[in-house]
Specification:
heterodimer, A: 638 residues, mainly beta, five-stranded mixed beta sheet, 6% helix, globular, B: 348 residues, four-stranded antiparallel beta sheet, 3 helices, 28 strands, 8% helix, 47% strand
């Protein structure tokens, strides 16, 4: 069977298993793909997938909340309507590549993406790649990659989903989805509306020795989104066209420190993203062609400082891939990518700055070589017509048992991230002479999947990782009255990630327990200054310990979800002399679902942060206390 | 056995409750020394006050939060002392903390100010506050610790110097003027066009105003040191920096009012009657980052701060007036402006 054939079978199985329209059971929680004979990622790499069911459960939330509660990714959030950025294994937000259907959507100016603006309900799956796996789907994710995806389900008929949610602090979301088609054509339309007054109360610890209860102001947000997907397939070839428009109009809440002197900051984000994709195959070969055009506006206003910053950016991306099975054991793949991006900003010396980044990735992998399989990735990038030192990655996988799904796998990767447009061109302080950031990382994973009985199974995996980033780009004080971007040191990260899952299903009862734990040590090893007190100290806002758990139980039409997440101490200054304390957020969801014919009626009640923990993700920006939401989900087959 | 246990417990409690004499705020704060503002990280809320004691030769850090049980605020930019009070201008928190100079206890908080930068003490009951973003100077009533009015200068403001019944205010960011305010009736009465971005001001022994213009961040203009006759409000002398890339800051003057100091990748020193800007620094910066400067008005100590990489604790550095480094003390994050508290018993 060709790769694409295997691929199609795998995804067909995967998607049909999770198709929310046809399935009359509620699938629960995150799916961690630990090993499969058929996988589009080569052997030796760890991939995590958050499935449709989890995203549906959290359709009223942003990707930020979903990642923070269900993965080991560290998320820095400025509150309910504030900026939110992810961090992989101790690396920075700009080291995380955010993709939509394999196309980078990081803002080219900052090189990062505000994941609070990505509604979980608009997508079918989130793919999380770390280490060398990031090199396969894109460029620059030296920390990791988060790929939000829309995927087709080839079921016949027309289906409608209505998903309103009302919650505390004046928060309302509505998601509507219409899917229609047959086995050759599918159209999916999703519309999203979100409004939040976000006026929760909190204890202000900045203005008095005894914290004072205050209500959050200037935190209103309004978001709208529309995703249109069209899919065609014939034989084993398919064509897809996807469009995602979104805007967000929000007030940025002030910190406790500046409350009375609030600048009344506002931000308007608008983006239009399109991607056209064709996949075909012939014999033992398969190929794809992708074109994507993206536009984004970011207007920031600070009335106090009279800042009215209008920033526009765009990108045109072409991708082409060809894969050929050389024999029964070796597959070779080539991916060519060219990304043209541009920025128009009042903060650059030229009205419009552009950049071209092209890459050629060659992947060779073995399949079905008994208990050992391996892969080799080579990547050559060309930045503004300048060839870079090639990146590479190698992965190995060994099946410990001939009869059990026990695997040990490891990889070593060297990857490159080019500076952001702001790092290069911001006026003043941008530095066109910056070197690229280089990551050298390794990881070793033990995967175990054990079926205890027909109704009970266990999964466990644990990963040790290490990563060294050199030429780290930081903004540092220069000889003039402004800061400049410099290659200012090195960062070492190392740690461990463990996940355990137990699943039971018998008769009308089903249950699933998930436990995740992450240990991350991240410190600076190189510096521009002598007597550096930061050397060896944990990087700020990177918790050493974090964990989360969830227990899904379903009996007949009743279901409940108990979830907890723990975030350890996070240092807020470089010498680790002050920190934000650790916190635990607990939530409980109870619900009732009726399935009649192919229609489903689901009502759920969520109590979040039930112990009313007072916590901050970013110092002096309070997070909400206990809150409640009523969630309704109606799925109708017309 | 039981008694021994009891005795141990009592001793433990006694030891636990005993204060280190060095931390007795009232004692060391009443001595001679330097109050130093640490700006902290922008939006980090870790601005603080340190005190370097000339008596014990020690530095005491994080005093405000320790004494008042709350943070000082975000980016304390400057401070001034008059009578029994210290006024700390906390830029990004939009407030002024009024504190007792003897024990650093908070007396009042004047809030809802727009990006305040520097404070000029006009009298025991009046002060002016400049603003990075507002077109007005805020007038403070120091008797009631409240805002009593505004003076619209139609430009943002930075440095302030007061002499007789005149206040001189600089329009720094993108500006090139000094505004002259009549402090009796709180009005703008004149302005002087100097050079690009007047950043700091001092008054010399002859009652001339010295203006340090840093030339602007685009480096389109050379920096200049300009003297203004405060009787006529006319420019008396201009000293142009020979290197267009010079970006000087933090003009200071010694106690006699005859020697000027400023920072420009090192500490520069020149007499008020000098005919040119020195070509080399009096004290080279070396591997440090000199951030702010102060001159002890009694013994001429040259006090500067090393902000390191602006992320970790910096240092307070005291050089004798011959340029010899005498004190290097670990302060906190981005140590900045300072004032001297010198009693009559302070000797040279």
């Amino acid at each position: 069977m060709s790769m694409l054939g295997s691929f199609t079978v795998f995804f067909s199985l995967f998607l049909s298993a999770q198709d929310a329209f046809l399935d009359d059971t509620v699938k629960i929680n995150e799916v961690i793909i630990t090993s499969h004979k058929v996988n589009r990622f080569p052997s030796g790499y760890k991939i995590i997938r958050l499935d449709t069911t989890l995203l549906n459960e959290n359709s009223h939330e942003s990707l930020s909340a979903v990642l923070a509660r269900n993965t080991g990714i560290s998320v820095k959030s400025y509150g309910l309507s504030g900026l939110s950025t992810p961090s992989f294994r101790g690396t920075g937000a700009s080291h995380t590549l955010i993709q939509w259907n394999n196309i980078a959507i990081n803002n080219p100016m900052l090189g990062q993406s505000d994941i609070s603006l990505i509604p979980a309900g608009l997508f079918d799956e989130v793919e999380i790649l770390s280490g060398g796996a990031s090199m396969i789907t894109g460029n620059g994710g030296i920390g990791g990659t988060i790929n939000v995806m829309n995927k087709p389900s080839w079921s016949e008929g027309t289906f409608i989903v209505l998903n309103p949610v009302a919650g505390s602090f004046g928060r309302y979301t509505g998601l509507a989805k219409v899917k229609t088609g047959n086995s050759h054509f599918q159209s999916v339309t999703r519309a999203y509306l979100q409004y939040g007054k976000n006026d929760f109360t909190y204890m202000n610890r900045a203005i008095s020795s005894i914290p004072v209860k205050e209500r959050m102001t200037n935190s209103e947000s309004l978001g709208r989104g529309l995703v249109q997907e069209l899919y065609f397939r014939r034989n084993r070839n398919s064509l897809s066209a996807r469009m995602w428009y979104q805007n967000s109009d929000r007030n940025l809440p002030a910190s406790m420190l500046t409350g009375t002197a609030s600048a009344n900051e506002t931000q308007f984000d608008e983006s239009l993203r399109t991607v056209l994709n064709y996949e075909g195959n012939k014999g033992w070969s398969e190929y794809f062609l992708t074109a994507s055009y993206n536009l984004a506006n970011l207007n920031y206003t600070n009335k106090l400082a009279s800042i009215y910053s209008d920033n526009r950016s765009g990108s045109l991306v072409f991708k082409a891939g060809f894969q050929h099975r050389l024999n029964n054991f070796i597959i070779a793949r080539t991916i060519l990518e060219d990304e043209n991006s541009w920025v128009s900003s009042v903060n650059y010396s030229d009205d419009r700055m552009g950049r071209n980044l092209a890459s050629l990735t060659i992947i060779t992998e073995t399949r079905s070589l008994g208990r050992i399989n391996g892969s080799l990735i080579l990547k050559e990038m060309m930045d503004q017509k300048k060839l870079l030192v090639p990146d590479f990655s190698g992965g190995l996988q060994y099946r410990l048992s001939g009869t059990q799904n026990y695997y040990i796998k490891g990889s070593y990767s060297r990857s490159t991230k080019v500076p952001t447009m702001n790092d290069l061109y911001w006026n003043p302080g941008g530095n066109p002479d910056l070197k690229n950031e280089i990551s050298n990382g390794a990881e070793l994973t033990l995967d175990m999947v054990q079926k205890i009985s027909g109704s009970f199974s266990l999964k466990f995996n644990t990963t040790l990782f290490s990563n060294a980033i050199s030429n780290l780009i930081q903004w540092v004080p220069g000889p003039f009255t402004y800061w400049t971007a410099e290659n200012a040191g090195k960062v070492n990260t190392m740690g461990a990630e463990s996940a355990f899952s137990a699943e039971y299903a018998s008769g009308r009862l089903s249950a699933k327990l998930d436990l995740n734990y992450s240990l991350t040590k991240a410190s600076r090893t190189g510096s521009l200054i002598s007597d550096d007190d930061m050397k060896g100290k944990q990087l700020i806002y990177i918790p050493v310990h974090s964990a989360n758990s969830s227990l899904h139980v379903r009996y007949s039409r009743f279901y409940s979800v108990l979830a907890s997440s723990y975030t350890g101490r996070r240092y807020t200054v470089a010498d680790n002399s002050s920190y934000l304390p650790d916190y635990i957020i607990n939530s409980i969801t109870v619900g009732y679902e009726i399935v009649k014919n192919q229609n489903k009626y689901n009502i759920g009640f969520l109590a979040d942060n039930i112990l009313n923990a007072a916590y901050e993700s970013v110092a002096w920006y309070p997070q909400p206390g206990r809150s409640f939401s009523l969630k309704i989900n109606i799925q109708l087959k017309l | 056995m039981k008694n021994s246990l009891l005795l141990t417990l009592v001793l433990f409690l006694f030891i636990s409750c005993t204060k280190d004499p060095d931390n007795d705020n009232d004692t060391f704060l009443s001595g001679n020394g330097i109050f130093l503002l640490n700006e902290g990280n922008f939006m980090g809320g870790n601005g603080s006050i340190s005190f370097y004691s000339y008596d014990s030769l020690k530095i005491f850090n994080d005093l405000f939060a320790g004494i008042n049980g709350r943070p000082l605020g975000d980016v304390p930019n400057s401070l001034a002392m008059t009578g029994e009070r210290i006024y700390v201008v906390v830029n990004n928190s939009g407030k002024i903390e009024v504190i007792d100079k003897n024990n650093l206890e908070s007396v009042a908080t004047i809030s809802k100010l727009k990006a305040p930068r520097n404070i000029g003490i006009i009298s025991s009951s009046k002060a002016y506050v400049t603003s990075l973003y507002s077109d007005s100077i805020t007038v403070l009533d120091l008797a009631n610790n409240s805002v009593s009015g505004y003076i619209n200068i139609k430009k943002t403001s930075e440095a302030i110097a007061v002499i007789r019944n005149r206040a001189y205010v600089s329009n720094w960011v993108g500006g090139n003027k000094i505004f002259v305010l009549d402090t009796d009736n709180n009005k703008v009465i004149d302005s002087v066009e100097v050079a690009m971005e007047p950043e700091s001001l001092v008054i010399d022994k002859d009652k001339n105003l010295w203006v340090l213009c840093n030339g602007g961040w685009k480096r389109e203009y050379s920096a200049e040191l300009i003297s203004v006759n405060t009787s006529t409000n006319e420019i008396a002398r201009r000293l142009v920096f020979p290197d267009r890339n010079s970006s000087p800051s933090c003009l200071q003057i010694d106690g006699s009012g005859s020697t000027l100091y400023f920072l420009s990748s090192g500490i520069f020193k020149l007499k008020t009657d000098a005919s040119a800007i020195p070509l080399t620094p009096f004290i080279p910066q070396g591997g440090r980052y000199f951030y702010k400067l102060g001159i002890n008005p009694v013994n001429g100590d040259i006090v500067t701060t090393d902000a390191a990489d602006f992320q970790q604790n910096g240092q307070l550095l005291i050089y004798k007036n011959n340029g010899e480094l005498s004190v290097s003390a670990k302060a906190e994050i981005i140590p900045g402006m300072m004032i001297f508290r010198l009693n009559d018993d302070f000797s040279k």
